[in-house]
Protein backbone atom coordinates (compact mmCIF):
# COMPACT_ATOMS: atom_id res chain seq x y z
CA UNK A 1 0.00 0.00 0.00
CA UNK A 2 1.32 3.39 -1.00
CA UNK A 3 1.13 6.39 1.28
CA UNK A 4 0.56 10.03 0.44
CA UNK A 5 3.93 11.71 0.01
CA UNK A 6 5.71 8.54 -1.13
CA UNK A 7 8.19 8.86 -4.01
CA UNK A 8 7.99 5.90 -6.39
CA UNK A 9 8.88 4.91 -9.92
CA UNK A 10 5.86 4.19 -12.10
CA UNK A 11 6.66 2.37 -15.33
CA UNK A 12 7.80 4.58 -18.17
CA UNK A 13 6.43 7.66 -16.38
CA UNK A 14 9.46 7.58 -14.11
CA UNK A 15 9.65 9.19 -10.69
CA UNK A 16 6.26 10.17 -9.28
CA UNK A 17 4.98 11.47 -5.97
CA UNK A 18 1.79 10.05 -4.44
CA UNK A 19 -0.18 13.21 -3.72
CA UNK A 20 -3.54 11.76 -2.68
CA UNK A 21 -5.76 8.68 -2.43
CA UNK A 22 -9.33 9.28 -3.60
CA UNK A 23 -12.52 7.39 -4.34
CA UNK A 24 -13.48 8.33 -7.89
CA UNK A 25 -15.73 7.34 -10.75
CA UNK A 26 -14.83 8.38 -14.26
CA UNK A 27 -18.24 7.68 -15.77
CA UNK A 28 -21.85 7.59 -14.63
CA UNK A 29 -22.09 3.81 -15.13
CA UNK A 30 -18.96 2.94 -13.14
CA UNK A 31 -18.86 2.50 -9.40
CA UNK A 32 -16.43 4.55 -7.41
CA UNK A 33 -13.11 2.93 -6.62
CA UNK A 34 -9.95 4.01 -4.91
CA UNK A 35 -7.17 5.62 -6.92
CA UNK A 36 -3.69 6.74 -6.07
CA UNK A 37 -3.11 10.19 -7.51
CA UNK A 38 0.44 10.40 -8.87
CA UNK A 39 2.28 13.50 -10.04
CA UNK A 40 5.33 12.87 -12.23
CA UNK A 41 8.42 14.75 -11.07
CA UNK A 42 9.06 15.68 -14.71
CA UNK A 43 5.61 17.28 -15.08
CA UNK A 44 4.31 18.90 -11.89
CA UNK A 45 1.04 19.88 -13.60
CA UNK A 46 0.35 16.30 -14.76
CA UNK A 47 -1.72 13.80 -12.83
CA UNK A 48 -1.97 10.05 -13.14
CA UNK A 49 -4.84 8.07 -11.68
CA UNK A 50 -3.70 4.63 -10.58
CA UNK A 51 -6.52 2.25 -9.55
CA UNK A 52 -5.56 0.45 -6.35
CA UNK A 53 -7.29 -2.75 -7.50
CA UNK A 54 -5.58 -3.06 -10.90
CA UNK A 55 -2.83 -5.65 -10.41
CA UNK A 56 -1.22 -5.07 -13.81
CA UNK A 57 -0.86 -1.32 -13.30
CA UNK A 58 0.19 -1.73 -9.67
CA UNK A 59 2.93 -4.14 -10.79
CA UNK A 60 4.55 -1.16 -12.55
CA UNK A 61 5.07 0.60 -9.22
CA UNK A 62 8.63 0.23 -7.98
CA UNK A 63 10.42 1.73 -5.01
CA UNK A 64 13.00 4.37 -5.85
CA UNK A 65 16.49 2.92 -6.16
CA UNK A 66 19.10 4.14 -3.71
CA UNK A 67 22.43 5.60 -4.76
CA UNK A 68 24.16 2.37 -3.71
CA UNK A 69 21.69 0.26 -5.71
CA UNK A 70 22.29 2.36 -8.81
CA UNK A 71 26.05 2.05 -8.42
CA UNK A 72 25.66 -1.73 -7.92
CA UNK A 73 23.60 -2.05 -11.11
CA UNK A 74 26.27 -0.16 -13.04
CA UNK A 75 29.12 -2.23 -11.60
CA UNK A 76 27.35 -5.59 -11.92
CA UNK A 77 27.66 -7.97 -14.83
CA UNK A 78 24.06 -9.07 -14.17
CA UNK A 79 22.82 -6.23 -16.35
CA UNK A 80 24.48 -7.54 -19.49
CA UNK A 81 21.81 -8.64 -21.93
CA UNK A 82 22.24 -11.08 -24.76
CA UNK A 83 23.07 -9.63 -28.17
CA UNK A 84 20.54 -10.77 -30.78
CA UNK A 85 21.93 -10.72 -34.32
CA UNK A 86 18.64 -10.59 -36.21
CA UNK A 87 17.31 -7.00 -36.05
CA UNK A 88 13.62 -8.00 -36.01
CA UNK A 89 14.22 -10.52 -33.23
CA UNK A 90 16.31 -7.90 -31.37
CA UNK A 91 13.48 -5.39 -31.69
CA UNK A 92 11.05 -7.92 -30.22
CA UNK A 93 13.52 -8.84 -27.46
CA UNK A 94 14.02 -5.19 -26.47
CA UNK A 95 10.26 -4.58 -26.41
CA UNK A 96 9.73 -7.62 -24.15
CA UNK A 97 12.46 -6.49 -21.78
CA UNK A 98 11.20 -2.91 -21.68
CA UNK A 99 7.64 -4.07 -20.99
CA UNK A 100 8.79 -5.54 -17.66
CA UNK A 101 9.77 -2.05 -16.44
CA UNK A 102 12.65 -3.78 -14.67
CA UNK A 103 15.40 -1.19 -14.39
CA UNK A 104 18.14 -3.82 -14.83
CA UNK A 105 16.62 -4.76 -18.20
CA UNK A 106 16.16 -1.16 -19.30
CA UNK A 107 19.68 -0.39 -18.09
CA UNK A 108 21.04 -3.41 -20.00
CA UNK A 109 19.44 -2.23 -23.24
CA UNK A 110 20.70 1.34 -22.80
CA UNK A 111 24.20 0.17 -21.99
CA UNK A 112 24.29 -2.27 -24.91
CA UNK A 113 23.09 0.31 -27.41
CA UNK A 114 25.44 2.98 -26.08
CA UNK A 115 28.37 0.59 -26.45
CA UNK A 116 27.27 -0.29 -30.01
CA UNK A 117 26.89 3.40 -30.86
CA UNK A 118 30.36 4.25 -29.52
CA UNK A 119 31.98 1.21 -31.16
CA UNK A 120 32.90 -0.35 -27.83
CA UNK A 121 30.80 -3.47 -28.38
CA UNK A 122 32.33 -5.59 -31.13
CA UNK A 123 29.27 -6.37 -33.24
CA UNK A 124 29.06 -6.07 -36.98
CA UNK A 125 26.03 -3.80 -37.24
CA UNK A 126 25.34 -0.21 -38.24
CA UNK A 127 23.74 1.92 -35.54
CA UNK A 128 20.30 2.63 -37.01
CA UNK A 129 17.66 5.29 -36.37
CA UNK A 130 15.53 2.59 -34.71
CA UNK A 131 18.39 1.80 -32.31
CA UNK A 132 18.79 5.52 -31.59
CA UNK A 133 15.05 5.74 -30.76
CA UNK A 134 15.28 2.79 -28.35
CA UNK A 135 18.39 4.30 -26.75
CA UNK A 136 16.56 7.61 -26.31
CA UNK A 137 13.51 5.92 -24.76
CA UNK A 138 15.55 3.80 -22.33
CA UNK A 139 17.62 6.85 -21.43
CA UNK A 140 14.51 8.87 -20.66
CA UNK A 141 13.15 6.08 -18.44
CA UNK A 142 16.41 5.78 -16.52
CA UNK A 143 17.14 9.50 -16.37
CA UNK A 144 14.00 10.26 -14.38
CA UNK A 145 15.08 8.02 -11.54
CA UNK A 146 18.85 8.32 -11.80
CA UNK A 147 18.78 12.14 -11.89
CA UNK A 148 16.46 12.18 -8.88
CA UNK A 149 18.95 10.11 -6.87
CA UNK A 150 22.30 11.02 -8.45
CA UNK A 151 23.67 14.44 -9.32
CA UNK A 152 23.92 14.19 -13.11
CA UNK A 153 22.66 15.86 -16.25
CA UNK A 154 20.96 14.12 -19.16
CA UNK A 155 24.17 14.37 -21.22
CA UNK A 156 26.08 12.59 -18.44
CA UNK A 157 23.59 9.70 -18.19
CA UNK A 158 24.97 7.37 -20.88
CA UNK A 159 28.63 7.81 -19.91
CA UNK A 160 27.55 7.22 -16.29
CA UNK A 161 25.73 4.02 -17.29
CA UNK A 162 28.78 2.83 -19.20
CA UNK A 163 30.90 3.44 -16.10
CA UNK A 164 32.91 6.14 -17.83
CA UNK A 165 32.14 8.85 -15.29
CA UNK A 166 31.33 8.84 -11.60
CA UNK A 167 28.64 11.01 -10.08
CA UNK A 168 27.80 11.96 -6.53
CA UNK A 169 24.71 11.30 -4.51
CA UNK A 170 22.34 14.29 -4.25
Describe this structure in words.
By secondary structure, the protein is α+β, with helices and mostly antiparallel strands. It folds into two domains: 7-63, Beta Barrel (Thrombin, subunit H), CATH 2.40.10; 67-169, Up-down Bundle (Methane Monooxygenase Hydroxylase, Chain G, domain 1). Helices cover 41% and strands 20% of the residues. The chain has helices at 55-58, 67-75, 87-99, 103-117, 129-149, 154-161; strands at residues 7-10, 14-24, 33-40, 48-51, 61-63, 150-151, 168-169. The strands form two sheets. Strands 4-3-2-1-5 form a five-stranded antiparallel sheet. A two-stranded antiparallel ribbon has the order 6-7. Helix 4 packs across helix 5 (129-149). It is globular and about 55 Å long. The mean pLDDT is 88.
Short key terms for the protein model shown above:
single chain; 170 residues; alpha+beta; Thrombin, subunit H; Methane Monooxygenase Hydroxylase, Chain G, domain 1; five-stranded antiparallel beta sheet; 6 helices
Amino acid sequence: MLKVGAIIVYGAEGVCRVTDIQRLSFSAKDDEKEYYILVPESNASGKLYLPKDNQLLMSRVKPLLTYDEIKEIIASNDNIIEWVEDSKARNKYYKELMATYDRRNVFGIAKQLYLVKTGKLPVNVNFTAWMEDVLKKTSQILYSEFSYVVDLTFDELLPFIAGEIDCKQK
